[in-house]
Design goal:
By secondary structure, the protein is mainly β. It is 0% helix and 49% strand. The strands form three sheets. It has a seven-stranded antiparallel sheet, with no helix packed on it. It has a six-stranded antiparallel sheet with strand order 3-6-5-10-13-8, with no helix packed on it.
Length: 275
């Protein structure tokens, strides 16, 4: 089995996170954890595995990054699934990454201490889904799942796969545009992207949209010395065919309490940061 990255850090103010990488010499990976309240950030990756993010009763979790290959067509055109999925399992939040036919996936999560009026949505190949954009409602992507080549090749018109949750005409609308017909038997498959919305009494908000060209792009989305911010993805685009430990799409806190967004070449993202 390839190496695995695992982090789980809870913090009252944002601090640098140290990655712990298993070299394969031991049966388990190392983990860093602090028993503090507030914003939580986590990273989990490689082959198929789950990471417990904590109780659903006191927090809401969503994606801040996705890396790796979302290839889901194997030898003989066998259809598989790859993705980075945050979900509620029993009374716990779970971050699950699974590799399909590719070399691995890693996903990054943000958890915030809010649960009021929480709802989730799943994208549909029949069209967008939505919920009302109420006064305090904030929405983020929580899962990117690829069936077949949904996220591993461009659409027929040459544009990359794309998913987004955004406010349109008084509603938060989840839209997904991915390759949908990958099954040689004729069944329709597509990406199953999910979003979560929760009421947050914010006193600050940043929203940014970025696209990388032919090289990796790194942008500051929350400048120092602002502390106590939490960022997550509201849109993601691109063909995902790299290894799990290389740049993909990720918003992350760095030194000085600022957040940066890193995009590999050809990737795009919208990031929303709340305070």
């Amino acid at each position: 089995m390839s190496s695995m990255l695992r982090e789980l850090v809870l913090l009252t103010s944002l601090v640098p996170v140290a990655a712990c990488i298993d070299d394969g010499s031991s049966p388990d990976t190392s983990e860093t954890e602090e028993d503090l309240t507030g914003v939580g950030i986590a990273s989990w990756g490689a082959l198929d595995a789950h990471l417990d993010l904590g109780p659903i009763a006191t927090q809401t979790c969503f994606l801040r990054g996705v890396h790796g290959s979302l290839k889901g067509v194997g030898p003989g055109n066998a259809i598989t699934e790859a993705g980075a999925v945050i979900s509620m399992q029993g009374d716990r939040w779970d971050l699950y990454t699974f590799h399909g036919s590719g070399p691995g996936v890693s996903g990054q999560a943000t958890c915030i201490p809010y649960t009021a009026n929480r709802v989730t949505m799943m994208s549909s190949i029949t069209g967008p889904v939505s919920v009302p954009a109420t006064a305090n409602r904030q929405c983020f992507l929580m899962s990117v799942r690829s069936f077949g080549n949904s996220w591993s090749e461009n659409l027929a018109n040459g544009t990359p796969p794309h998913a987004q949750i955004a406010v349109e005409n008084g509603n938060w609308v989840l839209r997904s545009t991915v390759v949908n017909n990958d099954n040689p038997d004729g069944e329709i498959y597509g990406g199953h992207e999910e979003a979560v919305c929760v009421d947050v009494p914010i006193d600050g908000l940043y929203g940014w949209q970025y696209g990388a060209g032919g090289s990796t792009l790194v942008e500051t989305v929350v400048p120092a010395p602002d502390a106590g911010w939490a960022c997550g993805l509201t849109a993601i685009s691109g063909v995902f065919l790299d290894t799990w430990d290389r740049p993909g799409v990720e918003a992350a806190p760095v030194s000085g309490n600022k957040w940066t967004l890193t995009l590999a070449a050809g990737k795009g993202a919208n990031v929303r940061c709340i305070h």
